[in-house]
Every structure is written in C-alpha cells, then in structure tokens.
Amino acid sequence: DKDALKFPKNLEDLRRLNAILSVYINQHFGNVYVTFFITYVYLQSFSVPGSMWLSILGGALFNFWTALFTVSLCSAIGSCVAFIISGSLGSVAVMRLIGDRISKWNEQLVQHKQHMLNYMIVLRVAPLPPNWTVNLGAPHLNVPISAFFWGTFIGVAGPSFIHVQAGAALDRLSSSDELKLFTPINVACLVAVGVVALIPVFIRKRYEV
Q1: Residue 10 and residue 158: Cα distance in Å, rounded?
Q2: Percent of residues, the chain, with pLDDT higher than 90
Q3: Dihedral (C-alpha) 96, 102, 103, 104: value to the nearest 10 degrees?
Q4: Any idea where the VTT domain is (predicted)?
Q5: Chain centroid to CA 130: how far?
C-alpha cells in the first residue's frame, strides 16, 4: 500500500487512499486521525496544494461533524503558523512578492480595523484572493492574530462543509462519477455566508456604532 500513501492530487489518488485508510481506521483510529491532523496543518502552514482533497478525505473517513470541526481547526492553526512565519521570518520576501497588494489593502483597511473579524470571514469564503496570500499578507496589515484565527476558523467552515459533504458521499460514487462540489445551491450558500458576515459591518456604518 505504500505507493498510495501520498498527498492526493486527483480523484483517483483520493479513492485509493480512502480505500486503504478505511481498512486501518477501525483498529487504529487514533493513528489515522493524528496523522490526518498533522498533515493538514503542515499543508496549510507552508501553503502546499492539496488541502481540498484532504477535506474530502476527512469527510469519507470520519463522522461528518468531526471532519468539519477538524478541517476548520487545522486550517486555522496552519494559517496562524504561516501568519507567524511571515510576520517574523519572511517580511522581506513577502514584501517583494506581494508588497504592492499589501500597500493597497492597507489603505483600504485603515478605516475598518474594528471590522477585521468580519472581513477575515469573507476573505476565507471568497475564492479570491488565494488563502496563501491572505496568510502571508495579514501580519503586515496589522491584523490581530485572534481575529485572524477565528475569522479563518469560521470562514473556512462554509467551503469545508461542501468538501466534507462530498467526502461523505465518496463511497457511493462509481468509478465513472465525478465529484460535483460547486453546484448552484452550494455557491448560493457560500454567498449567503459572506453576506451574513458583512451585515454587522453595514449596521455599524449605518448607525455609526
């Protein structure tokens, strides 16, 4: 089985990995869960592609709510690791890479510091900018790490809900079926999450709270 124990990059890799781990998880749940947890945090910490496939795998292996909580928590922890690395060790490299974007964002955020949690939630729900850009840029925008953590934890729950739900149905798919993640209903739900997150911002602006 060793050739299949790798980061899944497509649906076929995911099927093989799920088939193997489904055999081991009954007797070695702790080992599988801890390995999944550490691997997910690693991918998020160093912006390695593949976290979406792991989210789907989590939905196939674990109870739905366990998988959703784990994926959200791992995303928040891993993003905070990237946040700390960028803020303490990678300042020069980050400014060279996305310095222009950070300058523009900083101008826009100066007047909205009190809404940082809401904006973080929306950024995590939205497909753009990429998560790695948010992770690296946030410490240079003076985003509090508490708002960054909770904004990530809550914000990724929406997309993760879709991925975990797809994973829960993985065993019922035939080899010719494809995973349909972003259906019109799923997209509408993500948009709704973003709108709800921004409602407090609109209320504060309207009544100058």
Answers
A1: 22
A2: 24
A3: 130
A4: 48-168
A5: 10
* Interatomic CA distance for residues 50 and 43, integer angstroms: 7
pLDDT digit string (tens) for 24-60? 898 899 999 999 999 999 999 998 888 889 999 999 9
Give the pLDDT of residue 176: 44
Contact 162, 181 (CB under 8 A): yes
Distance (Å, rounded) from C-alpha 61 to C-alpha 138? 33
Enclosing H/E stretch for 181 = none
Whole-angstrom Cα distance, residue 26 to residue 86? 39
Query: How far is it, in rounded angstroms, from Cα 141 to Cα 121?
Result: 16
Report the residue count for the chain. Answer: 209
- Burial class from Cβ neighbours inside 10 Å (0-12, 13-18, 19+) for residue 170 reads buried
Quote the pLDDT of residue 71: 95
Higher pLDDT, 82 or 119: 82
Q: Quick check: 18 and 60 in contact, CB under 8 A?
A: yes
